[in-house]
Automatic annotation (TrEMBL):
One of its GO terms (molecular function) is ATP binding. SUPFAM superfamilies: P-loop containing nucleoside triphosphate hydrolases (SSF52540). Gene3D superfamilies: P-loop containing nucleotide triphosphate hydrolases. PANTHER family: ARSENICAL PUMP-DRIVING ATPASE ARSENITE-TRANSLOCATING ATPASE, ATPASE RV3679-RELATED. InterPro entries: ArsA/GET3_ATPase-like, ATPase_ArsA/GET3, P-loop_NTPase. The lineage of its organism: Bacteria, Bacillati, Actinomycetota, Actinomycetes, Cryptosporangiales. It holds the Pfam family ArsA_ATPase. Residues 14-169 form the ArsA/GET3 Anion-transporting ATPase-like domain. This is ArsA family ATPase. Coiled coil: none annotated.
Length: 323
C-alpha cells in the first residue's frame, strides 16, 4: 500500500489533468486563484487550443500573450496564456535560429502547420517548453511568477504529452530541440512540479485517475493531489427507511401519503443508499493512491466567477500555497 500523504504539495508548476468531463479546467482556474492569494502572481496556461479558460472569467478568447484576467483574494493577480503551437514554433525559430521575418514567411507558406502536424513530439516540446520558460523566467533576480498552473490534456493523453524526451527521441539526438526537451524534462521531473488529478466519485474517472498515477510515476513525474470535484453533502450509508416511517413523516408534514408517493420515495432512498455506498468505496480507492485528497463542493448555481472564488477558498483551506 502506498504511504498516505496529507499535505498539499508545494510546487512552482502545477499541472492539472483529469478525465474529460470532470471539470479539470475549472479546477485549474480555481487553483490559479488560490495560489495567487495574498499578493502573489500566477500564470494560468492552456495548451489544448480549446479556449476553455476565457469563458470561465467572462472574457473573449485569449490571445497568444500573457494578460491579466482576475484579481485573487487579498490582492493577488492571475494572468493567462493560451499557448499556440505555431506561434511557439516561431518563437523557437527566432530564439535559436534568428529567422525573424523568414519564420513568418514559413507560416504563410504553411510550413509551420506542416511541421507540427507531422511531428507531434515537436508540438508537445513547443507547448511544454513555453510553460517551462514561464516557470523559470526571472526579472532582476526575482521570479516573474510565484506559480504557474497548466490546464493539461486529459488523463488518457497526459503522460505522453509530458514525456517529451521520449516523444522527440526520433526527431533529434543532439541540437536545440534535444536541449529544449531535456530542459523541459528537468523541470517536470523536479520537486518544483506537481501533477494533480481531477476526478469525480464515479467509477470510470476514479479508474482513470488510478491508471494515470501509475503511468505518471512510471516515467518519473511527481504526483501531486487528487482533487475530487462536485462533491455533494454527506450521504447516508446503510440507511433503512420503511414505508411506515415515510408515511408518518409525510403525515406530520401534511403531505400526501398515497401508495405511489410512498413507493417513489422508497425507491429514491434505496438509490441514494446504493450511490452513497459506491462513493464510499471509490473514496477508499482514491485514498489507497497515497496522495492528498481534496474535496471540492458541488456548486448548485453552476460555475461562474463567484463559484471559482468559492472553490479557490476551499483549496486555500486545504493548504494550497505558492512555494
Amino acid at each position: 500500500m502506498p504511504e498516505e500523504s496529507t499535505s498539499f504539495p508545494q510546487a512552482r508548476l502545477h499541472v492539472v489533468t483529469g478525465k474529460g468531463g470532470t471539470g479539470k479546467t475549472t479546477v485549474a482556474a480555481a487553483l490559479a486563484l488560490a495560489l495567487a492569494a495574498g499578493g502573489r502572481r500566477t500564470l494560468l496556461v492552456e495548451v489544448e487550443g480549446r479556449q476553455g479558460i476565457a469563458p470561465l472569467f467572462g472574457l473573449d478568447p485569449l490571445p497568444y500573450s500573457e494578460r491579466p484576467i482576475a484579481v485573487a483574494p487579498e490582492g493577488g493577480e492571475v494572468r493567462a496564456l493560451a499557448v499556440d503551437a505555431e506561434e511557439a514554433l516561431l518563437d523557437y525559430l527566432e530564439m535559436f535560429y534568428k529567422l525573424g521575418r523568414a519564420g513568418r514567411m514559413l507560416k504563410k507558406l504553411g510550413a509551420i502547420d506542416f511541421a507540427t502536424t507531422i511531428a507531434p513530439g515537436m508540438r508537445d516540446v513547443l507547448l511544454t517548453g513555453k510553460v517551462k520558460e514561464a516557470v523559470t523566467r526571472a526579472d532582476r533576480g526575482r521570479r516573474v511568477y510565484d506559480a504557474v498552473v497548466m490546464d493539461a490534456p486529459p488523463t488518457g493523453r497526459v503522460a505522453r504529452f509530458l514525456n517529451v524526451n521520449h516523444e522527440v527521441a526520433g526527431l533529434a539526438k543532439v541540437g536545440p530541440i534535444k536541449s529544449q526537451s531535456d530542459g523541459v524534462m528537468a523541470v517536470l521531473r523536479s520537486p518544483m512540479t506537481a501533477v494533480h488529478l481531477v476526478t469525480l466519485l464515479e467509477e470510470m474517472p476514479v479508474q482513470e485517475t488510478a491508471d494515470a498515477v501509475t503511468e505518471l510515476a512510471g516515467i518519473g513525474l511527481p504526483i501531486g493531489a487528487v482533487l475530487v470535484n462536485s462533491v455533494r453533502s454527506a450521504s447516508l450509508v446503510d440507511a433503512k427507511v420503511t414505508q411506515a416511517e415515510l408515511k408518518r413523516g409525510l403525515t406530520a408534514a401534511g403531505l400526501p401519503t398515497d401508495r405511489g408517493t410512498l413507493k417513489g420515495l422508497t425507491d429514491e432512498v434505496s438509490d441514494h443508499v446504493r450511490r452513497a455506498a459506491l462513493e464510499q468505496r471509490l473514496r477508499a480507492d482514491l485514498t489507497e493512491l497515497g496522495r492528498p485528497v481534496v474535496d471540492l463542493p458541488f456548486l448548485a448555481g453552476g460555475i461562474d466567477s463567484d463559484g471559482l472564488y468559492e472553490l479557490a477558498d476551499v483549496l486555500r483551506n486545504a493548504g494550497v500555497r505558492a512555494s
